[in-house]
Specification:
- The complex is a heterodimer of chains A (about 525) and B (about 500).
- Helix content of chain A is about 45%, strand content about 10%.
- By secondary structure, chain A is of the alpha/beta class.
- Chain A has a five-stranded parallel β-sheet, sandwiched between helices. Chain A has a four-stranded parallel β-sheet with strand order 3-2-4-5, sandwiched between helices. A four-stranded parallel β-sheet of chain A has the order 7-6-8-9, sandwiched between helices.
- In chain A, helix 7 links the parallel strand 2 and strand 3.
- In chain A, helix 5 packs antiparallel against helix 20 and helix 16 runs antiparallel to helix 22.
- Chain A is globular.
- Chain B has a six-stranded mixed β-sheet with strand order 1-12-11-10-13-14, with helices on both faces.
- In chain B, about 60% of the residues are buried.
- The model of chain B has no long low-confidence stretch (mean pLDDT about 95).
- Classes of the chains: A alpha/beta (about 525), B alpha/beta (about 500).
Chain lengths: ~525, ~500
């Protein structure tokens, strides 16, 4: 029974004798093997750690277990929230939207506005035109956005709804009451059964950039540089990148800037905050250059930009080398020498790397996440002399595996560094048991791997549901690399303390100074 | 200041003005002001429910898949639940509901894992039944201690004409394993509610009617066997309920479906009484057991001492005097704890007003717990309720209460601004909206990572959590020292 002066929640409550008894008694009714024959559970648990199990596990062709990817519309919602006063609108069933909103909200600890047009059985039969007519009108009336960015769920894709025609029809029926003729309704088809959330990001970004700029191409450029962040889940990274561009005094447009939307100060609530002004987005076609910070999340978008004949290209500013390349690219595009501010920042980062390197050197890491994230963070691990032993990308696009392999081949431990494209986290579990590492880098889904393998998890990635505020930091730029360095080094040191803290047995290496 | 009721009515009128005509007409039927004394109201606030959501608003509703996989089937721990279709649904719904269980995850229990058939374009074009069969085979190889597999359909399955029922049946016949195909595509119905119903029906068809072989010895029946139905063991709720039922001499042979095994579900057809907590999601299977097996069922409420005591006595009344005596002994045993909690927390919470928006049973069931602490619920509503829920709500409210069915973000924000509650209690999607306004907030789906809230031990946690939320110093920091009076 609870004690008034020591009310405990379930964590401790269920450890009390009366509850241990309840749980023990319950087993007589249970049919799980743990209740029937615990030794059998033990036996199978051991088998799941074996090479035999690993081979069977890696041979899977059909079932995915514990994935490390999500579906297209999630990325489309992120794009929409990066534009000023823009409502993400998902054409399809509203269950999907409930999921996108809760998924982002659990990561950012911020509200995530997004509407759906709630298609049900009748829409499955007759198509979703009626839903779209009502939905766009209601959305515009209630939330008063400046733009509505429409993406699709797999339901709408399977029945083959035509977004372009539907948006026109909705405006026509509305007659300009809530949806004036020039009201921007941008759209992208985002089928969940193709690619992953980064594909949806690409499709929506392509949709917005191409549709808003239609007919806007001018002879002269506006002299600006477009920056496309990609599926960026670190708010601080966007700010780091802006600071670098601003250090060059460059005039730029961050296309899809959700850094204020998912980082609102307390005190008041407004549905939308920050974002790329629609007027700037309409003019992005006239920029002199476009830089995408995530190659694999902007394949289609950058193809279009190539046709626009913009300078720039792809540059991934994670890690020292990545940031150097980004800085040099900006220097080249602006014709401005690298500013002193950045030189000092770089110097400080390198100084820090040289202070901490013994703790990361030759440490084995397992890491998973989105393809561009992995390119950046693995580069940083290599810069520190660490060994990226298992690099797993569930949503690996074409070309990623080769690029990653080439990077790992520069490591002295290349032969023991493995690339796993298209594999999931249950595969990772087998890899960790059979070829163990010292640390894992990944998202909250690594938690069960940490429990099962006892390998410490360093929380870097998306989604992170069970650690707070990490998304507010940067992992891009020199300052972002310093964060990576700090998190990783200190986890190594925490682990060293963990292993050496046993009094009178291992605590001779429990050093005060390191 | 005008009366609470007048302000509530004005708020409802005001909120409807923002809508285009057609939507306003629709929403007007879902909003109302409920009164405990107004016998003329057919449902609480006379609201309409279980209808299609207005398109283009930020509804909090989920889908049929969420109702089946996420709510009813997902917590059954010794079965593998496949999210059948594209990758997203399983990922977004993974391990978010805190359905606690004891078991070795990945070996004999699978609740927090995510199994997906990860449909690709070719599966949409050519059909995914062969892939499903392959999935079933691979699961049985890699997870040999699973006691069954459910196939939870995502939207495309029903649209592309796949026959998961045939594929499942063939595999089940070949292997003798329990395979449960569930046609819970997300577009079916208007909310997660239909998913509950569909899932209940598959329990009937594939667990009861098929009576699958279960591991271990058969369980001998006693006169005091009961089952907990509609408790998903969120934060351990079913455990803090179970202990009370056992203390009063009953034998809980099954939990549905938090911490459940398939064997418990099979055994339920032999109990003396079914105890139904979440009426909305599991009344179907309870009615079925009543009809087919003659098992009576009663609803109960273990939130807050007033309702808990009432429910314990109601349950005991079904059994002999020995149980009734033990029931009184249980009530007497915990009364000092209840008094102590109330004496400590009531002065800290007295008169604080609350607005709720949740699903299932909570919009009405938790009202009593708040009132036990002297808090006043002035607004409540359900994501996916039916008429019978709103009828039941009439008996639970204490005062004039604004009632909002399938409320959307716009409306809830407007109601909160108009009625200025001291606490908002709803889900994760709304949490930070209200916290940014400086309002204390508690998630009432996940217990905000705390709980359990059921039973006496749960009430202690509930009380201390509400104190934590309302009386934390952090809400006082929103206003900066340089802000002038009246500014945020």
């Amino acid at each position: 029974m609870q004690e008034l002066e020591n009310i405990v929640n379930g964590q401790r409550l269920f450890q009390r004798p009366e509850y241990l008894e309840v749980l023990e008694n319950k087993k007589q009714f249970e049919g799980g093997m743990g209740a029937i024959n615990p030794a059998k559970v033990e036996e199978i648990a051991e088998w799941t750690k074996s090479w035999d199990y690993r081979e069977k596990n890696l041979a899977r062709e059909a079932i995915t277990v514990n994935p490390a990817k999500a579906c297209q519309p999630l990325g489309a919602v992120m794009v929409a929230l990066g534009f000023e006063n823009t409502m993400p609108y998902v054409h399809g069933s509203h269950g999907c939207v409930a999921y996108f909103r809760s998924y982002f909200t659990k990561h950012f600890k911020e509200p995530t506005p997004c509407v759906s047009d709630s298609m049900t059985e009748d829409a499955a039969v007759f198509g979703g035109l009626a839903n779209m007519k009502d939905g766009l009108k209601n959305c515009a009336a209630l939330y008063k956005p400046e733009m509505i960015a429409v993406s699709t769920t797999c339901m709408a894709e399977v029945i083959g709804d035509d977004l372009y025609a539907f948006a026109l029809a909705a405006k026509e029926e509305d007659g300009g009451e809530f949806l004036p003729a020039d009201f921007p309704i941008t759209y992208a088809h985002t089928p969940s059964f193709t690619g992953s959330h980064i594909t949806g990001y690409d499709n929506m970004m392509h949709g917005i950039m191409s549709q808003l700029t239609e007919g806007n191409k001018k002879e002269e450029t506006n002299g600006k540089i477009n920056i496309i962040p990609g599926f960026e889940t670190y708010i601080g990274s966007i700010r780091s990148v802006k600071a670098i561009v601003e250090a060059f005094g460059a005039s730029y447009t961050m296309l899809g800037d959700h850094s204020d939307q998912w980082d609102m100060p307390a005190g008041d609530y407004s549905m939308f905050a920050g974002g790329t002004p629609i007027a700037d987005a309409k003019d992005c076609i006239n920029a002199k250059a476009t830089i995408s910070l995530q190659k694999y999340a902007t394949v289609k978008t950058m193809k279009m930009v190539k046709k626009w004949k913009h300078a720039g290209g792809v540059s991934n500013p994670i890690g020292l080398k990545g940031t150097d390349e980004f800085v040099m690219k900006l220097s080249e595009l602006t014709g401005v020498e690298v500013p002193q501010k950045l030189k000092v920042e770089r110097g400080r980062l390198v100084d820090a790397m040289q202070d901490s390197y013994p703790y990361m050197h030759a440490k084995k890491f397992a890491i998973w996440g989105d393809p561009d994230f992995l390119v950046g963070v693995v580069s940083f691990l290599l810069e520190m002399g660490a060994y990226p032993t298992h690099v797993l990308c569930h949503n690996a696009p074409k070309g990623w595996e080769d690029e990653m392999r080439a990077m790992l081949d520069t490591s002295p431990a290349a032969a023991n560094c493995h690339v796993w494209a298209g594999k999931d986290l249950w595969h990772m579990r087998s890899l960790l048991f059979t070829e163990p590492v010292d640390f894992m880098i990944g998202n909250s889904y690594g938690k069960e791997l940490m429990r099962d393998t006892k390998i410490p998890l360093i929380y870097i990635g998306f989604p992170i549901f069970d650690r707070h505020h990490l998304h507010r930091y940067s992992i891009s730029g020199y300052d972002g690399a310093l964060n990576l360095l700090t998190w990783i080094t200190n986890k190594v040191l925490d682990q060293l303390d963990e292993e050496t803290k046993n009094i009178a047995s291992t605590d001779y290496f429990f050093d005060l100074v390191r | 200041m005008s009366s609470l009721e007048a302000r509530q009515k004005a708020a409802v009128e005001e909120v409807l003005k923002a809508y285009p005509e057609k939507a306003a007409k629709n929403r007007a039927k879902h909003l109302g002001v409920g009164s405990p004394d107004d016998e003329s109201q057919k449902t609480c606030g006379n609201v309409r429910s279980n209808k299609k959501t207005v398109a283009g608003v930020m509804s909090q509703r989920g889908c049929a898949y969420a109702g089946s996989k996420g709510v009813v089937w997902g917590p059954v721990k010794d079965m593998v639940h496949i999210s059948h279709g594209p990758i997203g649904c399983g990922q977004y719904s993974r391990a978010g509901r805190r359905n606690y269980y004891i078991g070795t995850t990945g070996v004999d229990s699978f609740v927090t894992m995510n199994f997906s058939s990860d449909f690709q374009e070719k599966d949409i074009v050519f059909g995914g039944d062969k892939k499903l069969t392959k999935c079933l085979e691979e699961i049985d190889v890699l997870f040999p201690l699973n006691n069954g597999i459910t196939v939870q359909s995502e939207c495309p399955i029903g649209l592309i004409g796949d026959d998961i029922n045939a594929a499942s049946k063939m595999y089940a016949q070949k292997t003798g394993h329990t395979i449960v195909p569930v046609n819970c595509e997300g577009f079916r119905g208007v909310s997660q509610s239909l998913g509950h119903h569909i899932a209940n029906d598959t329990v009937r068809d594939y667990i009861f009617d098929a009576s699958p072989a279960t591991l271990g010895e058969p369980i001998a029946v006693t006169d005091y066997d009961v089952a907990i139905i509609g408790d998903y063991n969120i934060g351990g709720d079913a455990w803090s309920s179970r202990i009370l039922l056992e203390e009063m001499g009953l034998r809980v042979v099954a939990q549905w479906s938090g911490d459940a095994t398939i064997k418990e579900m099979v055994q339920t057809t032999k109990v003396k009484l079914n105890l139904l907590h979440c009426y909305r999601s599991m009344n179907y299977i309870s009615r079925h057991m009543e009809k087919e097996y003659g098992i009576p069922w009663i609803e109960y409420n273990f939130f807050g001492p007033s309702q808990t005591i009432k429910s314990l006595r109601k349950i005991a009344a079904f059994f002999d005097v020995s149980i009734q005596e033990k029931c009184e002994a249980v009530i007497a045993k915990y009364q000092p704890l209840v008094d102590a909690i109330t004496n400590k927390y009531r002065p800290l919470l007295e008169g604080k007003t609350v607005m709720l928006f949740v699903g299932g049973l909570r919009p009405r069931h938790v009202i009593g717990a708040y009132e036990d602490l002297g808090m006043e619920v002035i607004g409540t509503g359900y994501e996916f309720a039916h008429d019978d829920d709103y009828k039941r709500t009439k008996d639970e409210i204490f005062r004039s209460t604004v009632i909002y069915d399938d409320v959307n973000e716009y409306e809830l924000e407007a109601f909160v601004k108009a009625l200025q509650p001291d606490l908002v209690a709803s889900g994760i999607k709304e949490k930070y909206v209200f916290q940014k306004m400086g309002l204390p907030y508690r998630q009432m789906h996940s217990w905000d990572y705390s709980g359990p809230y059921h039973g006496y031990d749960g009430f202690a946690i509930f009380a201390s959590d509400m104190d934590l939320a309302i009386n934390s110093p952090v809400w006082g920091h929103s206003k900066a020292p340089w802000d002038k009076e009246g500014e945020a």
